[in-house]
Every structure is written in C-alpha cells, then in structure tokens.
Give the backbone structure.
Amino acid sequence: MINLTINGKQIEVEEGTTVLNAARQNDIKIPTLCDHPNLTPYGGCRLCVVEVKGMRVPIASCTLPASNGMVIETETDSLKKSRSTILSLLFSERNHFCPFCQVSGGDCELQNSAYDEHMTHWPMQPQWTNFPVDTSHTRFILDNNRCILCRRCIRACAEMSGNFTLGVEERGSATIVVADSNVPLGESTCVSCGSCVQVCPTGALIDRSSAYLGHDKQMTVTRSVCRGCSLGCGIMVHTRDNRIVKITGDYENRNAGTLCETGRYKTLDEKRVRLTTPMKRVAGQLTATTWEDALTTLAQNLTPNKNKVAALASTRLTVESMAAFKSLFADGLGNDVVTSIEEGRPTALQAKYAEANGEAIEGKLDTLRTSDCVLLIGADLSETHEVASFYIKRNMPKGTRLIVVDPSENGMDDLANLNLKPKAGTDEAVFAALEAAIIKEGLARTEAKSSKTALKNALKICELAEEDVIDVAHMLAEAVAPVIVYGKGISAFGNDAVMDAMVRVAKLTGASDSERRGLLSVKGEANSLAAAQLKMDVPFDVKNRKVAYLAVGDDYISKRLLKSLEDVPYLVVQASYESELTDRADLVLPVNIWAEEAGHALNTEGRVQFAEAALTAPEGVRSNLGLLNEVAKLLNVKLNDDWRSALTARTSVVEIEM
Ligand code: SF4
Ligand code: SF4
Ligand code: SF4
Ligand code: FES
C-alpha cells in the first residue's frame, strides 16, 4: 500500500493507483475531461492537473502514479486559473454554441466542467472554422465542431471493441476525428457497437435514436441484462414516459460496458405490432376474448394426459419462467417434449458430454482476455456473439494469434493469422488431424500416442493442407494460454466423437488444463445454458401431440419451426407481438416483453445475473411467469419454484455461480 496526502488529507491506496483514482477513492473531486474510468488514461486535456510538492510544474493526475509520501494540492488559486484557461481554450477552439447542442443542459461534460469553474462566458474569440460533420452512419453522427479531441472515442473503439476504426487526421488545431483512412463513417469498418458514442463527453458523437428525446436527468435508468445472446452483457435501460429511449453499456457489470449493435440498438428498431388482448379462434377466425375465457379454454385443452402436449419456450424468457415452464409441462402435466426454441442445438452436445464425465469442462469468458492464441471453430462470433469477438480483437495488436476454422465465409476470416477451410461436416477429422500433428511434432503437453497414418488419413477426409495443420498445431501448443472457442457448428452438427476429439486436442495443447479451462462454447440466446440445465434441449417433435404450446415471449421463430406446426390440432401461443405464428394459433395469450419483467439470466459462462424491469407492461398483458402460475393453479399443478436447484440438478458444462 501507498500513503500520500491530498489537500491535507492522509490517504492510503494500492500500489499502481493513479493520483486521480486515489483522489476519487477518497471522495476528492478533481475535474477531468479526457479521462474515462474504463479506458486507459491518456493525459491529453490537462484539466486534471494537480500540484505535487517538490515538482516545478503542475502534473496531470490521471496519468500520474501515486507514490509514497507524495503531497498533492488540487484546489490552489493557480490550479483554478489554469482550469479556467484550459476550458476557455476548449470553448474557443471550435463551435460550442451550447443552446443548439442536444447534450447542453446537463449531459455535456465540457459544459458541466465550465459551470463547476463558475465560467459565465468565453473570454476568447471562438475560431470560426467549419469542421466536417459526418452524417453517413445509420446509428450516429460525428460533428467535429463539438469535438474536444479527448480521444475517448478512439480509445473505446480500440480498447472496448477492438475495432480500431477511429483515429485522427491533420495536426494541431486542425486535428479531426476520422474513420479508417478518412472515409465516411457509414462506409468504414465501424461495427456500430456505439461504445464511442457512450464515452463522448460532448455533443460531438450524437446518437440518432435518442437525440433530443430528453436529458439523462429526465430519464429513469434501470440495470438489466441484454438478451441478444448468451454473453449476458450488462446494460442500462434509459426510459422516459414508459418508453425506452436508449440502452447503454453497464460499466460495472458483465463485459464492463461493452455492447454490440444488437444489444445497444435492436430493441429500439422494434417495429412489430404489440399484442394486448387474448384471442381465441372462433369459427376459423381469431377473435378477441377475455382473460377469463382464454384461461378456461386453455385449461380445457391442457387437461392432464401424458404426452398430449409438445411445449416449447423461448430462451429469452427469465430463468424463473423457463423453470416454471419445465415444471408445469414436464413434471406437472407429464409431457416428454418440453424444450426450448433452440431445441438444444447450441448446447445439448456439450451438456451431454459434461454429464457423462461428471465435470465442467468449459471456462469463463475472461480466459479470452489473457489468451495468446485462439482457435475459433464452428462459430462466427462477429455475427452471433459479437462482444466475444471484441475480446479477441482487442488483444490481437498485443500479439494474440487467431486461427479460424470454418468451411464457409466467417466474419473473422480477415483478422485471422490462419484460416482453415476444411470440407464441410469433417470437424472430427480436423481435430484428429490436429491431434496427430501435435503428437508428431512432439508438442503434446500430456502423454499421447498416434498411429503413423493418423495424420494422412484425417487430412484426406477434411481436405486440409498438412503444413497448415502443422502450423496450427505449433501455434496452439506453443501458446502460453491457448483457448478453443466453439459454436453451433460443432454443437448442432457434431456428435459425441467430435466432442471427444475436441476435448482431446484441448488437453494435448493445455487449453483445458484444470486451472484455466480454455475451452469455451458460446451457445445461443440469453438463457441457452439454462435450457440445457433444465434439460429443455430436445427436438420439438409435435408428432401425435394434440396440443402445441409455444411460450415465445418477444422472440422470433424460424420458418422451419412454423412449418413443423402445420398438422398440430391445437396451437397455443404465449407471445408479445403479432407474427405468422400468432396468425396461425388457436389461442393467443399476450405477455410481457423482456424489459417489462424482472428476473434472472444465466449466461454462457454460468453467471447468474438479475435484470430489473424497466417498463410497465400495457394493460391486458400478463407476465410470462404470472401466466404460467395461473395456468398451473387452474390445472392443480404445484410448480417447483426452486429454480436455482433446478439449474444445478445436472452437471453443467461450465461451473454455475449463483
Ligand atoms: S458539446 Fe457541450 S460544450 Fe460543446 S456545444 Fe455541445 S453542450 Fe456546448
Ligand atoms: S468525438 Fe467525442 S470522444 Fe471523440 S475525441 Fe471528440 S469529443 Fe472526444
Ligand atoms: S454480445 Fe450478446 S449480450 Fe452482449 S450486447 Fe451483444 S447481443 Fe447483447
Ligand atoms: S483528464 Fe487528465 S489530462 Fe484529461
């Protein structure tokens, strides 16, 4: 620990803490602009300068490491003067005509800093140069006239999203923020994650969907969990008048504020028509009815009769709702087809493997932070689990190597150090070839044998070049912290033999040593892992079933699933939006969307997280869990509400942390 004095107060902080953070930890406010708690300190704006006893000039506290015996002053007259000068210069450098700016009046850190320093006007004549405004992007606008060159956006793009799209061009006061080699943002390599917009302290990066819809202080901010995929990124839902205005990353939660385009914007793109009234098919027509009638009709159709119903639930529902669904339809009503919308495609294979071996084999997402070599197979993370791709991309400039194995085009192909394009459907042979190459090259970290012909035989099947497979063997086995990330390509289309072969390679390369567990599967939607744990991971086989009950909530269903329902005698749909599915239903039960109900989510790495409700549901709409409870009551079924025990009843592929 380190002892120092700030403004006469003696404080103790951990070694490596900056003076700025030392002050923050002790409730001493030092003004800042370019600093952001989630980004590497840059030291550009100089607003945070402090006086350090024994030093001739004031120093930027955001980049200054605290050291033993330091004596710091933060509020001297000369420092206050220097801050005012810095702010005056910033205001004069570009067009900061606050009344015309959407962040003015509370959301602008520059304006707020000026108020804090009691500035009433700009003492210097503003520069009247017009800087470029880039409106080419569909999600946000970059107005260089409002830019203070703090470079937070550039750091966020690199450090959070690993995208390295933003940079600067020109010099001195002519410096501007640009995308790639100064191409319009809308034509650049930007992946629309919006991290730059969230960190921008001024009105230079303007979010198109929330601009002019209110100041932060007029909004209610609710902590929640993104349901876009199984990574479970922490989000803050900003609402006003019971409407979502924007979604931002939660710096204090899973994935530390980093979101992808889906997580930040997809909810705002919602155009589907909301269901608010129960509907029942009468003389071939879907007709609005009362909840009382809908529930009576439902109870008549669900009367207990073994395997009468095939039931399917969305993995976007809360864990509580999914567990209740399983308890009602499987344990209570005695049906064996009780599954999730993913039908186990992204999870069943590895869940079965873990259960058979009685142990968790996968690790946590954080292993990606420290990995120096990642083998990605059967997954296009840039399409399905984008924040996981950011984890990899962030580290590539530091030397992390990426191997992409995918017979088709993969969004991460261009970044890979090596692309392997095996023949489709030959994953077992790919792993067999890798295994044989590792052994042949003497790289195996555990004892292993392989036949002389194993490599050649495997290569013949997967149609890969021997030198490529040997290169991959070296890259993986010689890495300090290798990680294998696999996706639906393996879990949905592989089999036990593929799984065995992959785990063998993970062991041989040290990727799955018990300490680190560098084997990860990204799975599917939000509660994919919960579906596996609840054994809701079987195909949705409606053959010979009298009723199909689909609790899809706000999810979408595939054409294939829709087609499979054609011959079902009676179709019940618990949904939030009108769709082809509800058009076809015999009974429609309107329910909440994700943001209207509180509950838990279990992410791909076994982390249980609580999401608060951010919106009040429209009148006439039931909560998913409430509705399942009502149905259970009507049918005299006692639901098991101990969802935590239900989740851990089966050995999980990854340790579950409650
Ligand atoms: S970015 Fe901030 S300081 Fe600049 S015009 Fe907008 S409100 Fe004013
Ligand atoms: S656009 Fe915003 S975040 Fe980026 S440098 Fe300018 S002011 Fe800073
Ligand atoms: S990576 Fe997944 S959980 Fe994270 S923001 Fe994107 S869709 Fe949401
Ligand atoms: S906050 Fe320290 S130099 Fe900008």
